[in-house]
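Sorry to interrupt, but I need a hand with the structure work. Could you write out one complete protein record for me, on any chain you like? Just paste the record in under my message, thanks.

. . .
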Amino acid sequence: MKSFFAQIRKEPGFIMAVNFVILMVIYMLSRWFFYYMNINSFQDVTFSDMMAISWGGLRFDLSALCYLNALCIVMQFLPIKQRYNVGYQRVVKILFLVVNTLGLVVNAADIVYFEFGGRRTTATIFSEFGGEENLGKIFLNSITEYWQVWLFGIATILAVVFLYYKPIKRDRPKEEFPKGWVFYSTHTAIFLVALLLTLGGLRGGVSWKMHPLRQDSAELYCKKPIEAAIVLNTPFTLITTAHKGHYKDPHFFKEDENLDKIFNPIRNEKPKGGEMRKLNVVVLILESFSMEYTGYFNKQRDGGKFQGYTPFLDSLLSVSYSFEYCFANGMRSVDCMPAAFAGIPRYVNPYCYFAYSNNTLQGLPEMLKQEGYSTAFFHGAPNTTLGFKGFTNSIGFETYYGMDEYPVKDDFDGTWAIFDEPYLQYFAAKTKEFARKGKPFFLTVFTASSHEPFKIPDEHKAQFTRGEIPMHRAISYADYSLKRYFEQVKNEPWFKNTIFVITADHCGVSHREDYNNEMGRFLIPIFFYTPGGQLPVKCDSTRLIQQTDIAPSLLSLLNYPKPFFSFGKDVFDDSPSFVNYVFNDRNGNSMYYLDDLMIEYSGNRLIGIFEFKKDFSLKKNLLNKKDQYPQLPFMQRQMEAILQQYITRMKQNRLTAQ
C-alpha cells in the first residue's frame, strides 16, 4: 500500500492536481485581498455575503486556471512515457510558472485599477490605453503609491514558485512501466477523463444544458452589480473578452462639446412633484411575438382580410395604451431585458455578452424595490438559460423562479421549457402570494412556448392547426395561454390596481415579405393595460415606442420621484421638447427614426433615408434626395450623439444617473 501511494504521488497528473489546488488557494486569498483593498466600494458586503461570493468565485477561478494551464494539463496527462522524465517535467514547470506568474500579475494590478474603472479589467484595456504614451510613468507611480498591492503580488508569485510540487527526481526506468497495451489503454482513458473535466472547468460546470460562464454570470452570487468584481478574477475577464472586440470611438464630436445638450440619457432630471402612485406592475414578455402575427396591427393587409394568430392579444390591445409602430432594440432574448429594464439598447453586440457586461446599471426592479416594491422574475426554462438569472439579479429582482422552482416536471415540453399554459397559471398563483404580502409588487414573466421547437401540448394540437409555419400554431397556443392567465386573475382584488406592460423580446420567424426588411425585423407589440381605469386609456398612438421606452414611460405613469438613466424616452411626455424617436441597431447597421422618417448608418456614415410610413417595406432609398428633408441634420446629430454617448459611457462605466 505504501509503495502504491509513493507511486501515485509521482504521477504527472497528480503533480498537476496538487499545483492546481495551490493556485486555487492563492486566487481565493487574492479575492479577499482585493476586497480588503477596495473595501470603501463594498461597504454593504457582510461576512456571510463574502462567503457566498467566495463560493461562486471558485467557479471562475477554476475556469481561469483551466484556460491558463490547458497546455500544462495536456502535457501532464498525455499517454506517453516521456512524462516521467526529469527534463520533461522541467519544461512543464517552466511553462506553468510563466503563465501563472502572468495571471497573478494582472490579478494584482486590477486591485489598483478597480478604483478607477469600477469593474474588473477586460480585453478592452488594450484599445483604451493603446495610444497612451505615459504607461511607463503610470506603472512606476502605481508601484510607489500602492506598494502593499505589489508586495502582495510578489508574495503570491514567490508562493507559487517555492510551493511548486515536483517529486520526480530521476527518470523512471523502462522496466517499471506495465506492458505496452496496459499502459497506453489505461492512460488514454485517464487522458480523456482529464480533458472532459478540464472542459467542464472552462465552462463552469459539466451540464451540457448550461451556458458557459460569462462575466455577467458572476452576478448570481452577489447583491449588487459592483460586487461581481469580487467574484471574478482578472485572467478570466481578459481571456473571455479577448475575442469580443471593443467599441471604437467614432469621434463624431470634439472632447470639449457638451454631448448632454444634444442627447442626454439622464431622465427625469426635474421630477413633476407630488406622491408616487404605487400601483402594482406586471410585465409580460412574450417570446418571439412579432407584430407580423397580430390581427390588431395588420387590419389593412391582404385587402382587410388578414386575421392574425392572436385574438386575445388583439382584444387587449383595443383597450390599452397602444401604438402603431413599436420596436425591439435587439434581435435576441438577451437584448430585451437590458433595453426594457435598464435602458440599454443593443449596439453591435448583445450587452450581456460583451466586454462591458459588468458595468453598473440602474435597473427598473432595483428602483422600484427602493420604493417598497417586492420584485420577482419568472421564466419556465432551466435556471441556467441565457444567463437570465445572473442578469436579473444584477438589476434588482429579489427572486428568480425558473424551471428548478416549478413543481410539476411533467409540464416540461421535453426540449426547451415548461408549456405556457401551466406556467402562466403557476405565475397567476404566485402573483396572488405576492399580493397577500400587502406590498406593491413588480413581477415579470417571460413566456417560452413560441420558441423553437414550437411545441404544443398534445391535448391542444387539434385546437391550434391554422397557420403557414409551425411558429403560427405556437403563437396561437401562447395567445390562448395568455387568455387563460387573465381569466385566472381578473377577479383578484389587486387586478384593478395593476399596470400590465405587454411586449415581446424580439421578432420571430418571418413569413410575410413586407415584414422582411430592416424595419420589419424589429416590429413587436408594446402596450400598457390599466384595467382599473386609474389612468386614461386614450393616448397618441402615432408616437413611436421602443423597448428602452418601457421603463421611462412606466415610471412616468407611476410619478417616480428620482432621476434615472435610459437611452429611451417617456412616450407620454407632453412637454414641447419631446422628441419622437427610436434607435436600434443590427450588427453595426444603426437606424434612427423620427416621426415618419428613418435614417440608416453603417461604418459611421449615412447610407439610407426612408419614409417608412409610406414605404413600409423600405424599397425606396431616398439618399440622393437628402436635400429635401430639413429635419435630416437634426436626425444625424441625434444619431451621432446617441452613438457617442453609448460608447463613451460604456467604456467609462457611467450608465446610471449618479
About this structure: The two ends are 65 Å apart (CA to CA). The first helix runs from residue 2 to 8. DSSP finds 19 helices and 14 strands in the chain. The mean pLDDT is 88.
